[in-house]
Amino acid sequence: MIQKIPLANILFLDIETVPEEEHYQNLDDEFKSLWEQKTQYQRRDEFTPEGFYERAGIWAEFGKIVCMSVGYFTLKGDIRHFRVTSFFGDEVQILKDFSNLLSNHFSGPQHLLCGHNAKEFDIPFIARRMIIHQIPIPDKLNLFGKKPWEIPHLDTLELWKFGDYKHFTSLKLLTKILGIPSSKGDIDGSQVGHVYYVEKDIDRIVTYCEKDVVATAQVFLRLRREDLLDDDEILHI
Within a 10 A sphere around the Cβ of 142, how many other Cβ atoms? Predict the structure, then answer.
């Protein structure tokens, strides 16, 4: 029962990713061939490999993390706060900072990670990029040999599925139907690459990522039938 999980034991997270290279032409010939093979099923006959490259950020083999936002609850008596912070810029530093956060503050057996579609996207992406950069994978991300009930991850999409494994509901739709203030600002995930490479506006991406973390926490509260966070309870640090 998610109602029995202490909120302070959960680290909510979200990542924003972009193609590792800005342009398809920047890939060497081998990578171009591998990209063509990797995306053949998704592209079918509708896109050329080059025309499909703007979506490269969703694959850890061809994308990179440019921002990772996390949030956690602090509870003191009747006072509740949700603290949000972000790591952004150099991907190696992002991953190291996140690993240090887990090791120093969320490494206990009681601690859990939570995101929306995090089990299918965020957490595998983070782990794969750590391997690529030869960064040790924290225990919270290393699932090898663990039984399903031993995996310390929550996923608001999975909770909403109620066992309907073919079902997908976006975070934006879920916040709308649950009466939660919209998590999105003036961009969506498909525009992050443009904002990063062309506009070079990382602050805009950070704001977008942090809103998703807050929205995920709000969905989790709704699923527990608890009061949503007020603006004055949300602290950006």
Answer: 12
Q: Which of 197, 203, 217, 226 is nearest to 23 (CA)?
A: 197
Q: What are phi and psi of 63, to 5 degrees?
A: -120, 180
Provide the H-helix boundaries in the chain: 29-38, 40-43, 91-105, 122-132, 156-161, 171-177, 192-194, 202-223
Q: How far apart are CA 163 and CA 23, in angstroms?
A: 40
The strand pairing partners of 114, in sequence order, are 12, 154
Owner of token pair 């694959």: 59
Between CA 180 and CA 86, with CA 212 as vertex, the angle to 5 degrees is: 140
Whether this prediction's pTM lies above 0.90 is answered by yes
Which one-letter DSSP state was computed for residue 137? P
Q: Please give the pLDDT value at position 148.
A: 76
Could you give the CA distance from residue 214 to residue 86 in angstroms, rounded to a whole number? 12
Give the mean pLDDT of the chain.
94
Sheet containing 10-19: give its strands across. Answer: 153-155, 112-115, 10-19, 63-76, 79-88, 234-236
- DSSP classification of residue 228: P
Most distant CA pair in the chain, distance: 60
**pLDDT tens digits along 39-49:** 999 998 889 99
The C-alpha atoms of residue 33 and residue 17 are separated, in whole angstroms, by 22
Instruction: Read off the pLDDT of each residue in 63-67 and give the average, rounded to a whole number.
Output: 98
